[in-house]
Every structure is written in structure tokens, then in C-alpha cells.
Amino acid sequence: MFTIIAITFVFLVIALIAAQYFIKASANQLIEIQVESSKREANEIAKMLDFQLANDIEKQNIITNLQSTIEKTNSDTWFISVFNWSGKKICDPNITNVGQAINSNPDLLSSLEGKNISDDLYEVLIETTRNTKESISEVIHIAPTKNSDLIVAANVNVRGIDKQMKKLKYNFYTIFLIMGVLVIVLSSFAVRIIGSRYEKQLEVRNSDLTSEIMNLSKLNTDLVSYKEKVVKLAEEPKTEEPLEKGRKRILTYIRNELVPTLIKDIAYVYTENTVTYVVCFDGKKSISNSSLDETYANFDNTLFFRANRQFIISIAAIDKIIKYGNSQLKIVVHSETPEEIIISKNKAAEFKQWLNA
Fold first, then answer.
1. Distances (CA, A) of 110 to 55, 116, 252
2. CA quadruple 287, 288, 292, 296: dihedral sign
3. What CA–CA distance (Å, rounded) separates 180 from 16?
4. What gap in Å lies between CA 139 and CA 130, rounded to an integer?
5. pLDDT digits (tens, 9 = 90+) for 197-229
6. Is the pLDDT of residue 132 over 70?
7. Whole-prediction pTM value?
8. Which of 12, 115, 284, 314 is deepest in the core (most CB within 10 A)?
9. CA 188 from centre of chain
């Protein structure tokens, strides 16, 4: 839900900014095309009047014919009219405007100068629309005829342009609204599909993790139980039968000194650079001439476990068992080890059985 709300908010912000830009860019392009078309039409009519006057056609007949041609044509936005040097209209699509003075806005005329005429013209038209509620027309281009007082004018209906721009804005906002609904709906489906897949994967991982934690908890519980048994056995009176099976001690070396080491005092045995080291619970470390395999053969396999190729560990030395990597176990012993003791995935089941024996 929050993802969809965030997408909606981001889209609205982008849409508002983008809509204003696209509306203005489209309006400018539309106005520029219409301005150029109106100027071209005014110039063509001025040339036609020049041609007719040059061929000795009566001026009044020319005006009458032109009025009948443009009368009742569409004057909602852009249209052509003719006025004389006194500023009075002689021809206009609306015949009731004939004889009236023309409207000429200096800002509109100046906006047509330069290269980016549409940018300024759009702003001027919008400002003019805000300042008046009447349907007025303004001259944006004039084309005088030669050897005559007739002037052809390209006009713009300010109120009509305002309606045209409002329609353009409505179309853009409608398009953005439809796009927004589609984007939000499709994003909702996409988020839901991706989220459901991720949730399923997460559920599976959580289930596996829960199972591993339960197994690990059981291992640590078994370890605590074993330690309690060891303490209990230590408190009981000793019998003649030895607790350890097999050999009780092995021979090790400290420098050149031969030292017999009790097996029950050994915390772990490890090999490094083909040398076998024996480490006792008190931290005392000695060297054995036997390999790791030979040393393990002398131990009681109910009390010692071959963790990997490098370590043999005593069950009494295990402090805690930690989940490590992909279904692996990390053994932490009371004494410091040169490397981490890692039980592989393949030996983890055997270790659990040994610990629970």
C-alpha cells in the first residue's frame, strides 16, 4: 500500500510539472503555425488586391467581392479583415463590424518580432484574456496594398484563443489522468506479483531458518545435558572400573622432553603443516608423532569427534554450537584455537547423532 501511495505521489508531482511544460510547448507550436498561416493568407490577399487594382478593376467592386468572400467565415480564432488608412474596417467576416475602428495591441505586434515570436505571443494572449471578458479581436499582422489605402490585416480572436487553450489543457490533463490510472493500476499488479513471490521465498527461508535454529537449540541442549552428566559423574564416588574406554594416555613431546598426556585432559587435537598438536584444557600444548588418524584411533569415539581433516574435539571442550554458512556448524571450544572449527554439511548429521548418543 505504501509503495502504491509513493508511486501515486511521485507520478502526480511529475505529471503536474510535465503537463505545464507540454501544454505550453504545444500551445506555442499551435500558435506559431496559426500565426504563420494567417500572415501568409494576409500577404496573399494583399497581392491579389494589388493585381486587381493594377488591372483597373474598380476599388469598390474589389471591396464588395472580398466582403462577400470572407463574410460569415469562421472568426472564432484567426481571421482576415481589411481596413483603410483611417483605421476603419472595410471588410470583416462579421458585417456589423464594418466601419468600426480596428483594435491594435502594441504588445501583440511587438511579440511578433524576433525569432521566438510564439513564446511572447502566448504570454501576451493569456494576459489579454485575463484582463477582458469580452470577445475582442486584435491585429497581429498587416499587409498594405500598393498604390491604395487598403491594408489587409491578420486578426486573432482573443477569447477564441482562450477557449482553444482551455480545450488543449483539458485534453492534456485527461491524457495524464488516464496514464496515471494505468500506471498506478499496472504498478499495483506488478508490486503485488513481485511482492508475493518475494514473500513466498522469504517464508521458505524463514521456515528453513526456524528448523535450523530448533536443531541448533537441541544440539546445545544436549551439550548442556552432557555437561551436567559429567559434573554428576565427577561428584559420584569413583569405582574400580575406569570411566574411559581404551587407552588412558598418549605420549607427546614438549621440545625434546617426552610427556605422557592423559586423554581425559585433552581438549582438542589439530594438525598444522603436517605436525600434530595436542592441546589440553589448561592450555598446555604438546606435539605428537602420530598422525591425526592414528591419534583418533587411540581415543574413545563417544568422547572425541573428528570434526574435519584438521581437528579432533572433545565433547567436554565444546562451549557452544553456532549455525555457520549453508547448513554448516561452527564449534566454539573453551580454549583458543588457531582456526575456526567448522563441521561441514555432510558431517553435521553424524555430529548430531554423536552428540545425542
1. 35, 12, 108
2. negative
3. 11
4. 18
5. 888 888 877 777 777 777 777 777 777 777 676
6. no
7. 0.44
8. 314
9. 14
C-alpha dist (Å) from residue 282 to 48, 109, 266, 285:
119, 103, 9, 9
Q: Within a 10 A sphere around the Cβ of 263, how many other Cβ atoms?
A: 20
Q: How confident is the model at residue 279 (pLDDT cuts 50, 70, 90)?
A: very high
For 24-38, what is the mean pLDDT? 81
CB of 61 closer than 8 Å to CB of 89: no
Closest to 270 (Cα-Cα) out of 318, 338, 317: 338
pLDDT of res. 266 = 92
Length of the chain: 357
Q: Which domains does the chain have, with CATH numbers?
A: 2-178 (3.30.450), 249-355 (2.40.50.40)
The whole-number average pLDDT for the span 255-279 is: 90
What is the band of 246 on the pLDDT scale with cuts at 50, 70, 90?
low
